[in-house]
Amino acid sequence: MRYIVSSLERISTHELAPEQQQIFFCNASVGNCDTADAMNLPKGGQMSKVESKNRGRQRSEESEEAILTATLHLLKEKPLRDIAIEEIARKAGVGKATIYKWWPSKAYVALDAFLRTMNRMVPTPDTGTGEEDFKVQLHSLITFYNSPTGRIFSQFLAEGQIDREFASLFRERFLKPRREAVGVIFDRAVKRGEIDPSVDRELGLDLIYGPAIFRLMAGHSPLDPEAAEAMISTLFRGMGNKSFKNRSVPRKYDLGTRRTARTI
After folding, report:
1. pLDDT of 9-47, one tens digit each?
2. How far is the CA of 1 from the CAs of 26, 31, 33, 121, in angstroms?
3. Which domain holds residue 69?
4. What is the DSSP letter of 26?
5. Which of 42, 76, 106 is the last residue of a domain?
6. Which end of the chain, N or C, is less surrounded by CB atoms within 10 Å?
7. Do 59 and 137 fall within a single domain?
8. What does pTM read for this prediction?
């Protein structure tokens, strides 16, 4: 008994979920069927379940990578509102059904593509001190925002001003996981005694990253590594646990001297 590819044309593995992407075979009594040999299957025309599963997973990962990469390329050329799912599919070399299989709309694809790249370029360090962790992390963040991909962030903020649904999705799908990631640094610093435990976590994160975002949007002052260093140093003098180190500086200096303020 030989195995041949099923002739059920209505089934398209391109449109199936990853775990369903298998090659369908059916028994046939036709003579001289060389389909199995043509497809380089093991003798007897059988494919192991593990091999079939791995092939399906590989195709899915490749398609996902192509879709996210294509989306970022398009976002660098024009705003999200001017991009159609058809364009993403065409640039990625996949069908629309493949995109809708994983994402309900282009906004989801765009945010996932941006978040994936940002997570790769802006890691969450653990240098041993919270102050240094935030300096390293903010430095990476600034470098990312100054890159072609990072500038898409400004586009998302602008889109959120005119599209409430996108703004809500942006907060849930992008902002929330990013704040949770940097919140780990904050929590470690509190546990080490570097940050006063009475400081509200969300407020602290706003104070750390807010100045960088403001400079990114307003462009009134440089957004560079030196700025990151000054921002974090000044903030830690204000948020720092006063009992963590025996500081001999006067209280007015804790709030930042004029010289420090001018460097921010």
Report:
1. 333 334 344 433 433 333 333 344 443 343 333 444 444
2. 10, 9, 10, 54
3. 2-106
4. E
5. 106
6. N
7. no
8. 0.68
Q: Which residue is it, tokens 């000044």?
A: 234
* 144-175 residue pLDDT tens: 999 999 999 999 999 999 999 999 999 999 99
- Sorted by sequence, the CB contacts under 8 Å of residue 187 that are 6+ apart come out as 201
Identity at 229, one-letter amino acid code: E
How many Cα atoms within 13 Å fall on the side-chain side of residue 169?
A: 18
- The Cα 212–Cα 234 span in angstroms is 14
* DSSP character at residue 105: S
Q: Yes or no: say if 230 and 247 are a contact pair by the CB < 8 Å rule.
A: no
Residues 88, 70: contact at Cβ < 8 Å?
Answer: yes
> Structure tokens of 189?
């610093």
Question: What is the helix (H) or strand (E) element at residue 37, kind and residue range?
Answer: helix 35-38
